[in-house]
Amino acid sequence: MTPVRLHGTYRDAVALSTACAYVGPRSRYGNPFTAGGTSPLGPPMDAAATADLFAATLRGPVGRRYAARFARELRGLDLMCTCPLDVPCHADVLLRLANNTVGRPLPLTAELLEGPR
C-alpha cells in the first residue's frame, strides 16, 4: 500500500500507529516557511509557494543531507500534517522524497498534485 498524506495533529499521529509520522509544525520535519509569510521576492507566499520553497531547500547543498535523512526515516510511513488536504503541503514533498526512486529530482508541488505537465 502506498503511503498517504493525512490531516491531523501530533496526538492524532501517535494514536494511529507506528506506521504514521507527524511532520507538521514543531516537528523535526516541519516546513520553516509558512503561508502568508513574507517572501524575499515580493508578496506573501501561498501554500504552494511554501511547499516549493521547502523542496528547493532540500535540493540545496545543506538540504540534501536533510533530504537523505528524511527519506530514510519516513520511507513507507503515512505522513500527517495540520495543513488541509485540499492545499499543497510540504508533506507531499516528503512523501515523494521518502518513497521515490533514487536519483529522480524532487518535483514542484504542482507536479506532486497534478502530475507532470
Topology:
Elements: E1 5-7, H1 10-16, E2 20-22, H2 47-59, H3 63-74, E3 78-81, H4 90-99, H5 109-114
Helix pairs in contact: 2-3, 2-4, 3-4
Task: Outline the structure in words.
The C terminus is likely disordered. The protein starts with a strand and ends with a helix. The chain has one domain. Strands 1-3-2 form a three-stranded parallel sheet, with helices on both faces. Helix content is 41%, strand content 9%. The chain is mainly alpha-helical and 117 residues long. This is DUF4326 domain-containing protein. It holds the Pfam family DUF4326. InterPro entries: DUF4326.
How helical, in percent, are the residues?
Answer: 40-55%
Total number of helices: 5
What does the largest sheet look like? 3 strands, parallel
Radius of gyration: 14 Å
How many structural domains are formed by the residues? 1
Characterize the overall form: globular
N to C succession of SSEs: EHEHHEHH
Our measurement of the CA-to-CA distance between the termini, rounded to an integer number of angstroms, reads 26 Å
Number of strands: 3
On the 0 to 100 scale, the average pLDDT is 84
Strand content: 5-15%
Unreliable runs: 112-117
Strand order of the largest sheet: 1-3-2
Structural classification: mainly alpha
Entry summary:
It comes from Streptomyces buecherae. This protein has helices at 10-16, 47-59, 63-74, 90-99, 109-114; strands spanning 5-7, 20-22, 78-81. By secondary structure, the chain is mainly alpha-helical.
Properties at a glance:
3-stranded parallel beta sheet, single chain, 117 residues, mainly alpha, 5 helices, disordered C terminus
